[in-house]
Amino acid sequence: MARSTTKKASEPRDREGAALTRERVCREALALVDEEGLDALSMRRLGARLGVEAMSLYHHVRDKADLLDALHAAVLGALEPEAEAGARASRPGVTWRALLAGLARALRSSLLRHPRLVPILATHPVRAPESIATLERVRAALDEAGFLAADAEHAISAVGVFTIGHVLSETGSGPRAAAFRFGLEALLDGLAPHARPRPQPAKR
After folding, report:
1. Same domain? 130 vs 170
2. Domain of 170: which CATH number?
């Protein structure tokens, strides 16, 4: 039997010859936004940075909206609570307050590293699985604390808006960690009355 001479189509590779991956494409997109801003982000510009045709990128991202989802996930999906004084806020049994405060601090730190991504967080809906998973952790903690579902959503939104707004002010005037801590604690104090511990079942 004659051996087939049909070759499998080669995977797209960047200018160094490394095979493209979604992670590599998104990492380069983040670098592009960090350097030049969101307005500079296009499939053509991104392909040029990687040394490939723009069409090659569609093997890894469906379109620009999918790329924006990936950038959104780069901020939210990788967040781990930043505990104060070296404590681990992600330990089992963490309170809603410690988790929400820790994630707010982590979000602030991430956005201060990538300030040009702030508009994505402010305007782009949460769709990436990694981003959704992060928010689900917070919802679960709030639910466990007795927050009504609507109140939990308002709490997440309020802390997110405060954090993003504070980062915007810091990018113009410089880091103001003390002011951030003060505002965050005041906000959490205001949310605390919405925590309604569930009654424990009577012992028999």
Report:
1. yes
2. 1.10.357.10
pLDDT per residue over 67-118, tens digit each? Answer: 998 888 888 877 877 655 344 444 445 689 998 999 999 999 999 999 999 9
Burial of 142 (0-12, 13-18, 19+ CB in 10 A): buried
Q: How far apart are CA 40 and CA 49, in angstroms?
A: 12
Task: Round the CA-based radius of gyration of the chain to a whole number and report it.
Answer: 22
Report yes or no: 63 and 71 within 8 Å, Cβ to Cβ.
no
Q: What is the extent of the structural domain holding 45?
A: 22-61
Instruction: Annotate 90-100 with b (16+ C-beta within 10 A) or e (fewer).
Output: eeeebebbbbb
The closest of 76, 71, 124 to 103, measured between CA atoms, is 76
Q: Which one, of 77, 85, 76, 82, lies nearest residue 101 by Cα?
A: 82
197, 146 contact by CB (below 8 A): yes
